[in-house]
Write a structure and sequence with these properties.
DUF222, alpha+beta, globular, HNH, DUF222 domain-containing protein
């Protein structure tokens, strides 16, 4: 009866089933409790399978409809994966990955897809099979799919790491690579990059061909060995190598002059010492109010030559209201203000780094170049909004907001994140953050 109800009521039926699960009592019997957990896992797998089927069907249907209208003939499904991402509340990149994986599973891995539908395979396991066979020829990919379900293997009962090993093992047997191929691939794939991992650290990582990698490791090891022979050296080998890497890459001393410009977003009361609310460094996170005050107070002879620009917010709305700077040489204030206001790509769930300042309503639709009609976007989302039948327009809100209407006529609201200093009122009338959790007002 549940299956029939869901089939006949669509999304409303699915939400009703979810609501019913939330009203279910937890059994007192341990076996039944664990059985419920297993059954829920099977249900999750079946839902993932249906999500995958629905995603592919939506893209195919959208493509067919656009072809009839002579829209986007070269790539009629453009933007479909981004809309799937919105529906799943994941990043656009995640939506593209999900769409590609779903299409490959449905077309080339029928047994794995059926296992997911039957609750015998988790989505994590299905992803391992998909990624492990992605680069194989179609016949070999389908062969691996069949081998995984041979009774003698029990591949899906051995954990994800083992499953990955088995898939990789068969892939290497079916399509062996020569040493020359691997070396050429290593040279082609060489790269290095980095990203911030928390408020205080950056991760630098990369891959190099063996010959280049060994040379780098030898240089770093030599620097560590040489330094540790010096009397009074207290750094670990890893610390010495990190310092050497920095010095060799930049030509600068570890504590030496790197000119910077740092934006601090704060309630004006922080600067006067009346508030200790954390201060935002856009794109990097929060620092303590005390640290921010020291940075603002640093003199012109500071060894890091830091130019600090304070951006103040109106405490009731959180809107940027003023700039101050010792540096007076900074241009493009509107662009900076928008980047500070938005912090990340404004597409819901994306959180990518801002690459473009975009018009909410395009210029070709008479959109104005104003703060109200602006949004910070990553490169991908800036392109996606140009898809046919994708519409955006500003809407009133307590913070900068605009509506997004997708080709399927779903509507989402993009609201700028709160900035330091914005006071949120609770139903009790108190201001959020006014007093510590569980604490009482002064004199209370």
């Amino acid at each position: 009866m549940v299956a029939e109800y869901v089939a006949s009521n669509g999304a409303a039926g699915i939400r009703c089933v979810a609501s019913g699960l939330n009203r279910m009592d937890i059994p007192s019997d341990h076996f039944d409790t664990v059985e419920n957990i297993a059954a829920m896992e099977a249900a999750k797998s079946a839902i993932f399978a249906q999500q995958a089927d629905h995603a592919v069907a939506y893209e195919d249907s959208l493509s067919a409809a656009r072809k009839k209208r002579n829209l986007r003939e070269k790539n009629p499904g453009w933007g479909a994966s981004k809309e799937v991402a919105l529906a799943m509340r994941i990043s656009p990149k995640g939506g593209t990955h999900f769409m590609n994986s779903s299409r490959m599973m449905g077309a080339d891995l029928p047994l794995t897809r059926q296992g997911l539908r039957d609750g015998k395979v988790t989505w994590a396991q299905a992803q391992i099979v998909i990624s492990g066979t992605r680069n194989l020829e179609l016949a070999n990919r389908q062969l691996v799919d069949r081998l995984l379900w041979e009774e003698t293997h029990n591949c899906f009962e051995q954990g994800t790491a083992k499953l990955a090993d088995i898939v990789a093992y068969w892939a290497k047997i079916l399509e062996p690579k020569t040493e020359e191929d691997l070396e050429a691939k290593a040279w082609k794939n060489r790269c290095i990059g980095g990203y911030q991992i928390n408020a205080h650290e950056v991760m630098i990582s990369g891959t190099l061909p063996l010959s280049l990698g060994i040379a780098v490791l030898q240089v770093l090891a030599g620097e560590a060995e040489k330094a540790q022979r010096e009397p009074g050296e207290e750094r670990s080998a890893g610390q010495i190598q990190a310092d050497a890497f920095y010095e060799l890459m930049t030509g600068l001393k570890v504590a030496g002059g790197v000119p910077l410009e740092i934006l601090l977003v704060m309630d004006a009361a922080v600067l006067t010492g009346e508030s200790n609310e954390p201060v935002l460094i856009p794109g990097y996170g929060f620092i303590s109010a005390n640290r921010a005050r020291k940075m603002v107070a640093a003199g012109p002879d500071d060894e890091l030559a830091i130019w600090v620009r304070g951006l103040f917010v109106e405490s009731r709305t959180g809107q940027l209201v003023a700039m101050e700077s010792r540096a007076r040489r900074f241009g493009g204030n509107l662009k900076k203000l928008i980047k500070v206001r938005d912090q990340y790509c404004r597409t819901p769930y994306c959180n990518g780094k801002i690459r473009d300042i975009d018009h909410v309503v395009q210029v070709r639709k008479n959109g104005k170049t104003t703060e109200d009609n602006s949004s910070g976007r990553c490169f991908s989302c800036n392109q996606t909004k140009e898809a046919p039948d994708w519409d955006e327009h500003p809407t009133p809100g307590d913070r900068h907001s605009f509506n997004i209407t997708t080709p399927s006529n779903h509507t989402y609201i993009s609201k700028a994140p709160p900035l330091p200093g914005m006071k949120t009122m609770l139903p009790s009338g108190r201001t959020l953050g006014e007093h510590p959790p569980g604490g009482a007002p002064p004199g209370g």
